[in-house]
Each structure stands twice: as structure tokens, then as C-alpha cells.
Amino acid sequence: MRKLIENYALIGDGETAALVGRDGSVDWLCWPRFDSDACLAALLGTDEHGSWRLAPIQSARVERRYQPDTLILETDFHTSDGAVRLTDFMPVGDGNSVLVRIVTGLRGSVRVRTVLNLRFDYGSLSPWLERHGKRALARTGPGLVVLHAPVVLSGDQQIIEAEFEVNEGDELSFELMYGASTEPAPDRIDAKRALTATQKYWREWVGQLKNPTPWPEAVRRSLITLKALIYRPSGGIVAAPTTSLPEAPAGEMNWDYRYAWLRDSTFTLSALLNAGFTEEAVAWRDWLLRAVAGDPDKMRIMYRIDGGRRLEEWTVAWLPGYRWSKPVRIGNAAAGQRQLDIYGEVMDTIHLAAQAGVERSNQERILEEAVVRHVETVWRKPDQGLWEARGEPRHYVYSKVMCWVAIDRFLDGRAKVADADPAMLSHMTDLRDCMHAEICQEGYDPGLGTFVDYYGGQELDASLLLLPLVGFLRIDDERIARTIAAIERDLVDEGLVRRWKARSPNPEGTFLACTCWLADCQALQGRREAAHETFERLLAVRNDLGLLAEEYNVPGRHLSGNFPQALSHLALIQTALSLSGPTLRRGRAADMGKAGDGGPCD
Fold first, then answer.
1. Do 251 and 575 form a contact (C-beta atoms < 8 A)?
2. Which entry of 302, 401, 543, 560 is 20 to 30 Å from 566 by CA?
3. Treating both helix axes as pointing N-terminal to C-terminal, what angle do 528-540 and 566-578 enclose, rounded to 10 degrees?
4. Which pairs from 479-488 meet CB under 8 Å and 24+ separation?
């Protein structure tokens, strides 16, 4: 049986990432970028689809951890003959991307085996292999992968392998390096020096966090994870470094998350700014502005990490999928969907950055006006919603609310500009009031006493927890209070929040970011004890290294969905900091804590 998701650890260098299992096997690696073809794809198949195992030949008891405040993984293998430590990391730098694995003898004498099975094109292509003593080269198309080893390498035309003895005090370094097939093979690096530099990089970076919190370890680990998912050349952030890890057991909810979503933009900015990482926040804002350009009617819901727009979806027929869950998808067809909430996300991101003192650009002002003009023409259209439904478009309440957010944030920003056009401000104020009134009339069911997922529907959706958090209605508005209570009653499963009621015998897992949103709402209601309890429940489902997937399968007691998930860690950071003291919030502060004052809803 294949490993559960929580068995994996993340390592990365800011351009790509690898997943390392507890057994010492690297089962996922895309080179040279997060969204490139995988050359190790056993995560979605078998070892024959690409893996790199480095571990004792004997069975072993395993302990693992990250070195404190780093993305350097240590895995200790204890056998009957002794113990060895495997240290895995990827140096962050401007040279070739490198995966370093250092084997250190801790006790006794241990026989260790390494087996590297490179398979390009998501496990379908065997490379052209060459071995030269302690070096092996693998070429296919544009790519070149070089393994530098401390021992002589053997194997056949399919694999590269070696067996060797590790005694107490020994230290042996393996370096797997990526380069262009048309260039000379890269030379090996000084692994010890690279390790020291990598330790320094991560510790100095996360050391910028100064916010006091009862959960310092969880926040720091989530920040490091988030940083590892930022594509350094552009500032774009991948939703996850993986594709097709299923949201429901043996189902078809398998999506490619190796792209940057606009829906995550305000969550990203608020978490980074509140944690004090302004440089990364500004880089994300700048990535967003470059990606969306100045043409809102052509705005995509997601982009490649360099801002590219082409994400055509196809399926990998030769991969059996994670735990036999097919199809394996590459690309994401949802990129072309209409999702109206993205306009509110873009405007809210710009507004939040301005509140934090980030210098505004002329491009922002031009984009803002173009966005609100476009929102005026499209906000009454149905869409696919926050959750990217692939069925019939509907009038989703959260989508309408985020259209309202777009107009509201525009008005709040322009009210502070001396040369603002009074006629436009008056027109947009009327539009905002009209939108608010319609949403409250069509999106609220008086019989149920709650807001609903879409106009005419009668079901709850966890996205409704965001209505008070974005400032649409105040937290103690009776309609909001009833909606939160209904979500707690109907969508909470053992303390974790589902996006909606279970819809099949094998439903998807609880959605972890939604659990943080519930904690945020409980805190705003003054229910601090309940908020802490909800948040602690989220922390309890992290794996042993502090990593979260998108979802958690309560009956199966395991993580599910793509891993690690940026939105889950963003929500963790934001909720931990907001429960620990004053923070920058998405909604205007005056709208978030008190009852409504007889506005257009009434």
C-alpha cells in the first residue's frame, strides 16, 4: 500500500520542491520548476515511475524532524547493527538546482543502499544513462540530471544504484543536480558548506517574525512552508507543489495545484504583512499586478508561477494515481472559469497593502478603476464559485459578496484621494448599496434563518463564514450569528469544518482553511475559548513535521488533497496571529464588531 500523505516531508529551494517519505524515498520532484514535468513521480504511481530511495538494507525504526527553523530534514534510521542519519535539503541559490542527501553514521555499522530510478515526463521516459565511477548522468530532451556520489555507482539501463557500509562518524554526501542537456554537466558542490549556508538562510529569514503568540512553533513552521512555495524569480506562490492528490477517496476530485490562484491573494498578503514579511508581501502584490495586467475582462482565476496564462488540462493515462485514485491531471481547466470573487480579491489585496503602508503605483489606480467598471457589468451573472464547481453556473452568494467588496474597497480608497471624481463616487456608492440589498434579499433564506450557498438554494456553504470577515455584515448581525451557528451545527465534523454537507458515501475531507475561518468568527463574537479550541483542533491534524494538506479525512484519520497546501498554512498563520493580538484585517474595522445600523439590507 502506498504511503499516506502525512508520511511525506517537504524540501525545496524556492524554484521547485521534493517530497521525501519516512522510508528515505524521494517520491516527487519536478525540475526545473514547480510546474515542470516530474522526473520522480512515484507519489502518483510506483517506484517504476520515478523515485530515489536511500536507506539501510535492514528494517529500521525511524525518527525524523526538521532542523530547528529550517527546511532541512533529518531522518534517523535505527537498526539492530547501528544507526545512521539521513539529512535532506535543497540549497537556495542562483546556481543549478540541487538535492543534497548526506548519510552520517551515528552508531555501529549499517549497510545502506541507494536506488535512483529517474523517469522523465511524469514517469513515462527512461533517460539516456551514463556512469563514470562515482558520477552518473541522465539525459532526455532538454534536461540533464547528474548524480555525484561518494561511492562507485552500478545498475542497469533503468536504474542507478550502490550499496555501502556506514560506520560511526562517517559522512557521505550525494548530490542530484539539474542542468540543460546542451550544457556541460555541473560539477559537484561542497555539501557541508551548502548545509551551513542553507541553515543560515532559513534561520535568518524566519527570525524576522517578532509577533508573540502561544503557538510560535506552528506559525514559524507554516511560514517556512509558505516561503518554500514562493517561486523566487517572480514572487508567485503555488497553491501546492503537487497534482492529483485526491480530495475524496478513490474519486475524481484530483486537481493540479502547482499554480498561483488569485483567490488566495488577500489571504496571502494579510498573513505575510501581519507576520512582518513585507518584502514577500510586496513581491506577491507585484506578481499579481503583472499577471492580471490591465484588462479585467480577460483576468484568469489562476496563473502559472511566472504569470503565464496557459494551463491546458490533460490526463496522464500511464499513472495509476495516488492510492489508485484516477485520473492524474496536469494543467487545470478551471483556469478559464468565470469566478466573480477574484475581482474582490484583487481589490481587497490592493486595499490591504495600502493600509499597511505599501507604496501604491499608478498601475494600481488604473487597474482599480478598470476592475470596478468591469464588475458593474458582470456581477449579476452566474459563475462557478469559490470552489470551482464544474457543473451548472449559479449565483453564488460568496461570489456576489466579493463583487461588493471590489466596489467597497474602491470607494474606501478613492475617498482619500483629493482629485477623485464625485460623480463616479456617487454612482459607485449607489451600486454598492444596490448590491448589498440584493445579496441580503436573495442570498438569505428567512425560513432557514441563514445565508445560503447560492440564490434559490437551501444549503449551507462554509464560505459564508467569510461574510463578516470581509466586512459585508457585522459579526453580531442576527443573520450572521444564525449562519455561524448553523455551520457549527451542520458542517462541523469532530471539530473540523466541511465546505458543505457530505454528498456521497465517500465524501471529501474537512477543509482545513474553513476551520480557521470558524475560529476567526468565534473570536470576533467574543467566544475566545471556543476559538482557541477550534484552532487547537486544526493544529492536532498536522503531520509530525507540522505540515498540512488541503483537507483531513475524519473517518480515515489521515490528510487528503494536495500537500502541503499554501491556503491551509496561510489560514493557520493568520488565525494564530489574530488570536494573539491586534492584526491587519480584511474588512474595515468599524464594520466588523458591532451590530448593523439600518443600512440597505433592512
1. no
2. 401
3. 150
4. 479/440, 479/444, 479/449, 479/450, 479/451, 480/451, 481/525, 482/449, 482/450, 483/450, 483/451, 484/518, 484/521, 484/522, 484/525, 486/448, 486/449, 486/450, 486/460, 487/460, 487/462, 487/518, 488/518
Quote the DSSP letter at residue 419. Answer: T
Separation CA 553–CA 510 (nearest Å): 6
Give the integer Cα–Cα distance in Å for 109 and 87: 18
Q: What is the DSSP letter of 99?
A: E
Asked if 143 contacts 180 with a C-beta cutoff of 8 angstroms, the reply is: yes
- The reported pLDDT for the residue numbered 595 is 38
- pLDDT for 588: 56
Q: Which residue has cell 514547480?
A: 34
Contact assessment for residue 246 and residue 322, using Cβ atoms and an 8 Å cutoff: yes
DSSP string for 202-261:
HHHHHTT-----S-HHHHHHHHHHHHHTB-TTT--B-S-S-B---SSTTSS---B--SEE
In the chain the domains, ranked by start, together with CATH numbers, are 5-184 (2.70.98.50), 259-301+337-442 (no CATH), 460-602 (no CATH)
Sign of CA dihedral 231, 235, 236, 239: positive
User: Taking the CA atoms of the chain, what radius of gyration do you get in angstroms?
Assistant: 25
At 598 the pLDDT is 39
**DSSP code of 558?**
E
**What pLDDT digit, counting tens, does each position of 447-457 carry?**
999 999 999 99
